[in-house]
Amino acid sequence: MSISPFPSQLAGDFTVTAISDGYLSASLDFLSNIAPSDAASMQGAAGQAAPEAIHINCYIVRGMVRGVHRTILIDGGAGGVKQWGGRLRDNLLLAGIEPAEIDTILLTHAHPDHVGGLVDAAGQISFPNAELVVHQRELAFWDDDGNLSRASERAKGNFAMARRVFDGYRQQLRPFRDGEVLPGIQAMPLAGHTEGHTGYLLESQAQSLLVWGDIVHFPYIQIERPDVSIAFDQDPVMAATTRSRLLDMVSSEKLLIAGMHLGELGFARIRRSSGSYGLHYEIQG
Fold this sequence. Notes:
Elements: E1 8-11, E2 14-25, E3 31-32, H1 36-45, E4 53-65, E5 68-74, H2 88-94, E6 104-106, H3 112-115, E7 131-135, H4 136-143, H5 145-150, H6 153-168, E8 173-176, E9 180-182, E10 185-189, E11 198-204, E12 207-211, H7 219-222, E13 229-230, H8 236-252, E14 256-258, E15 267-273, E16 276-281
């Protein structure tokens, strides 16, 4: 079926489609190295009518992998957890994709707005035929009882959500350490946001696309000001360092990017001008 209702881009043999899960809200007070009033001004200047709204993208990757047609989901959205998101399933159906068609789930990390949609309200897995692929460090972090015991009450809920998902998919769970996770799809460690935060670089027929996970939450602020981190970052200083390094790379290489908290257009390029970075959405067609 056509997936034209949603933004799509080609990377060689891969077709990548941005599927919105909806929005969550996070206070601009959560940002560091910037006054909330300045952050609000930047959001307003960028035309963001709801300055504290954070969009949630998931991505479908479809294409031939070693002669087999694959339907891959990157991240599962929030699934309505904490009244966040929850549109993924309906939007997949609008895109002509049944949950049973998903054969692989690549996880950037296990925060609730990325795994909440992987199980339903009863705790049953949402994608019964999918292998769940996750970095070993990410899996080990959330499964560690010592980390749980040291967590805040809010973070304990995040542990419960991550464990529910990992337990649900335990029989079809594939941890990885580095390198190629599927032919043509390379894991890229992006340290700082979580223990095993990972991007995925798709390369096919000399075309590339990077799904960069949670490098930014407020793109119009953090791309122009990569020193600005958010309270969700496990290591804010490292997250800022990773963000600066990656922005330099993708702007220099003119690499097409996709991000879980970009807008509903889903795909963009980063351009550097007069010493600062700018976000430029890539319009389909």
